[in-house]
Amino acid sequence: MDVKPEQEKMDIGEIVENVDAKPTGTESPENVKVKVEDTPGSNTSGASAATASSSEEWMEDDGDHNGPIVIIMVGMAASGKTSLTQRITSELMRRGTPPYIINLDPACLDPPYPVNIDIRDVVKYKKVMEVYNLGPNGAIVTSLNLFSTKFDEVINIIKQKRKTHQYVLIDTPGQIEVFMWSASGSIITESLAALFPTVMIYVTDLISNVNPITFISNMTYACSMLYKSKLPLIVTLNKCDAIDPTFAKEWITDFDAFDSALQSREEYTSNLASSLALGLEEFYNKIEHVVVSAYDGFGMDDFFNAVQKSVKEYETVFRPMYEKLIQEKKEKSLKKQKQQLGKLKKDLRADGDADSCFVVPGRDAGTGMTLRLDNEDDSSTDDEDANVKEENEEESFSQVLNKEANRRSEKYSDDQGQGSSGAPSSKT
Amino acid sequence: MRFAQIVMGPAGTGKSTYCSYLEKHAQVTNRAIRVVNLDPAAEKFEYEPLADVRNLIQVEDVMEDEELKLGPNGALLYCMNYLMDNLESWLLPEIGEEYDGDYIIFDCPGQIELYTHMDLMKRFVKQLEQWSFRVCGIFAIDAHFLTDGTKFIAGSLVALSTMVNLEIPHMNLLTKMDLLSKSDRKNIERFLEPDAHDLLQEEAETPWNAKFLKLSEALGKVLDDYSLVKFVPLDIRKSSNMENILLIADMVMGVSEDADVKVKDFEEPENEEESEGGRDLDREFTNYLEGLNVRD
């Protein structure tokens, strides 16, 4: 497959942005086809007064830190992540602050909400399977990898949205480990977290959590997300319309209740599950958890209150830590990131014709305008020192990234060793 | 008595690579180890499978089915369910009737839902045990991710959330050690120490660490108590690593006759005093780990 000149130009980076895609106010989970105004969204009566005052609060807060607030939706398959994203979208619409939405799931069908940046518009999933000779899982990982090589552009777009949007909502692939435990997932999360107040939402469904072992598995996994990302986390128990969430609330607040549920269910004691639950008591104390229903909109107030709390936590706990990291290890961690990115880029190009996987607008893109960001002639190339202002860092990020990637690709060409560099192809 | 390793872990960690190197290593050392592929969505791998679930059913085919209309996840679950329904009829003939000392590695899919939300894998383990297999779980994690104490905890927790369901002894494999830089490899050595406690002490004073100190300590205690903190490094270039992994797995499964294997609480219901048995193994683990060669 020859790379045509126009494709080379494209290679600099095109993120397709659907500027026309705005929530029209008719989003709701597919089962409930009502207009937003009629949506039984709130779980308290007299909600309008409450939400009116909370809207003001949010707008005030937004001035204090660099908005917008980034909400990353993570969860296992069938947790109701996408439906919940839809519900949150319609709720934010109702409150007058429509979110800017990014879809990172390359294998989804049609997201039930209007997407502003869709990975499927940037990377062709089926093509990835062909070019890299991958199965469906590997293709998802690789699509995400390809997309992450252009993520700096997404960051720039989000920055431009500060004035117009309070929230950025990000829907992730259905396979949680593709996002949590991949280089691209880390790059994406860390890039966002460095600049915007970022909150992770761990969505899990109440129905499967009825089994105490599954419940503790889920909580353990959520805890691992907390330790991995070091970001505020909200454990969101979904589908409370289908099952009474009381059991879950009890298990969270009362270890003995959980333990007796465990004992009565299992033929014999699972000591590990029990010990884990005990260990996680502190987790429950420190983490927000909410009960929601994407289907009927229950719990939205609680959800957004939790988000607000998390944003404050981001400021007091996460941000200082990050800044400390910046002072102490900036060069090292940035280099590593660039290194990873550089390697990723190199691997992707080495393993297949990466360029053919990117969408060529006008030829095979859907709707939307192509946003082109000129980062070629930026002359601020001397920003590798730690003391620059954030503004400068942000502007030259992609510039330095590209430079570093080129520099490193030579250095690492002899370090490649076996072919199992792990980045593009996902051998399970 | 037959022996099985169930190799699990997130996608892309190098499970299949491990399996193929183990197979080669076994050939060289004259051990009868065979690999079975149980991942219907597997792409390609280097080993010669004794059995391959893709001969039974394939994810791509399921996805293409007009009536089912499943995406990659749904299709995988469908395939796995199908496999579980056909264990006796398909898998057993493939792996053959019992012969003593048989050692089979099962290369499994990465999707964590299979282990946490469904009892598929649990059923599979029970079936293996009925076929007189001793089973050991191998949880693979990419070494690139364990760069500090908290990430190490994160990794252990993922392994735990998978393993808590299966109730089999397990070890954690730190893969892709050969792809790390020298300094990173030395850094990782710290995490091979048994004490999660000490690790966390070394962490820098940050508001995050302060906020979650109690939790970290509580988790550290669980990990230590259950000797779950062991990560065995895997540098596939080193046959000594392979040999050590086999040794540990052997001990864990009681391959050698005089190993005192009161391994885990959740294996034997009657053992109330597991902690002592667990400690013995702990000491042995430590000895072996000290013998592991991580430096170049």
Kindly describe this structure.
Chain B: Keywords: GTP-binding, Hydrolase, Nucleotide-binding. The complex is a heterodimer of chains A (428) and B (296). By secondary structure, chain A is an alpha/beta fold. Chain A folds into two domains: 5-327, 3-Layer(aba) Sandwich (Rossmann fold), CATH 3.40.50; 351-428, no CATH class. Helix content of chain A is 51%, strand content 10%. Chain A contains 16 helices and nine strands. Chain A has helices at residues 5-11, 47-64, 81-94, 119-122, 125-131, 136-148, 151-160, 176-180, 183-195, 212-229, 246-253, 255-265, 271-279, 281-286, 300-351, 390-412, and strands at residues 14-17, 69-75, 100-103, 117-118, 167-171, 198-205, 233-238, 288-291, 369-372. Residues 1-13, 22-64, 364-397 and 413-428 of chain A have low confidence and may be disordered. Chain B is α/β, with parallel strands linked by helices and 296 residues long. Chain B has helices spanning 15-29, 59-64, 72-85, 87-95, 113-116, 120-130, 149-166, 182-189, 196-201, 207-211, 213-225, 239-253, 274-291, and strands spanning 2-8, 33-37, 49-52, 103-107, 133-142, 170-175, 231-233. In chain B, strands 3-2-4-1-5-6-7 form a seven-stranded parallel sheet, with helices on both faces. In chain B, helix 7 links the parallel strand 5 (133-142) and strand 6. At the A-B interface, helix 6, helix 8, helix 10, helix 13 and helix 14 of A face helix 1, helix 2, helix 3, helix 5 and helix 7 of B.
List strands and helices in order, with pairings.
The complex is a heterodimer of chains A (428) and B (296).
Chain A: H1 5-11, E1 14-17, H2 47-64, E2 69-75, H3 81-94, E3 100-103, E4 117-118, H4 119-122, H5 125-131, H6 136-148, H7 151-160, E5 167-171, H8 176-180, H9 183-195, E6 198-205, H10 212-229, E7 233-238, H11 246-253, H12 255-265, H13 271-279, H14 281-286, E8 288-291, H15 300-351, E9 369-372, H16 390-412
Parallel strand pairs in A: 2-5, 2-6, 3-4, 3-5, 6-7, 7-8
Antiparallel strand pairs in A: 1-9
Chain B: E1 2-8, H1 15-29, E2 33-37, E3 49-52, H2 59-64, H3 72-85, H4 87-95, E4 103-107, H5 113-116, H6 120-130, E5 133-142, H7 149-166, E6 170-175, H8 182-189, H9 196-201, H10 207-211, H11 213-225, E7 231-233, H12 239-253, H13 274-291
Parallel strand pairs in B: 1-4, 1-5, 2-3, 2-4, 5-6, 6-7
